[in-house]
Amino acid sequence: MKIADLQVLLKVAELQSITAAANQLDMSSSAASVSIKRIEQALGAQIFVRTTRQIRLTPEGERYLPLCQQALELLQQGQVLIHEEQQSISGEVRMAVSSEMGRNLMRVLLNNIMDKYSEVTLRLQASDSRADFYRDGVDVALRAITKDAAKELNLYGFKICNIPHVLCASPDYIAKHGEPLTPNDLLEHNALLYKLYEVVHDGWELYKDEEKYKIKMNSDRAVNDGDIVRRWCIDGTGIAKKSAIDVGQDLLSTRLQRIMSDYKVPLTEMWLVLPSRQLITPAVRVIRDELKHTINELRGQLIAQGIIDTQEWPDSP
């Protein structure tokens, strides 16, 4: 039911004339009549009794009119609220993200937000090094952290989601080198490794039925950029351990294939963090909400395709 139709109904009831109501609302009498008919059809009841000389409310109309007035007021309040929120979503967002998120998911998401809210401007720092809020002039950062680190987080923030990790390789790599089935099999394969601050992450931790496996991987390459690890994997140069968020679209498109799915990698968490509550602006809240929605859609697609299950990727409240 349209707000404009409700406005017509109330004005006709007030003036007891479709023509007079149409004149005050700057519309034709025929358009006003159509509005009344639409409401009557939606309700399945006649609202007005029409004669050649006058128009008056039916008993059903008399009961409906005060409810219509309340509904219109609420709808108009909602319009004002949304308009005010849209007007206030503005200003500069100084944000830090990882290189991989900056190139892929966040690049697209932030483009969409800025297309919708033209008063928002962005200063983005994309780096795998952890940003210092004060030194780097950053107001908000997107961070992947362990559960224990999240508990000790000495910052204001919003948990976006849980992050499952998967082992994956390209179909070409698997065809050429075979598919590993056990942790010991991994020793016969080339790992594509991530390094940060000269620390190479070559110890992979896996779990199966309460059993813990820690494998020191063999590798011919390492890089301090997670997106290059992903691209190497697509190129067929080895096996990677990656966030399901980062390789989700590659798994859905079959550019990459999940391997050893019965062995689990410990969950981490994604947080949007800020050094001060005062920096939680309407624009930051929009980014938070859009990010949650986008990742939840990806989660649903991966679960629907049977690539991951709900136990591996528990939903976040």
TrEMBL record:
PROSITE patterns: HTH_LYSR
Keyword terms: DNA-binding, Transcription, Transcription regulation
SUPFAM superfamilies according to UniProt: Periplasmic binding protein-like II, Winged helix' DNA-binding domain
Residues of the HTH lysR-type domain: 1-58
BP GO terms, sorted: DNA-templated transcription
Organism superkingdom: Bacteria
Coiled coil regions in record: none
GO molecular function ontology, one term from the record: sequence-specific DNA binding
UniProt similarity note: Belongs to the LysR transcriptional regulatory family.
Name listed for the protein in its UniProt record: LysR family transcriptional regulator
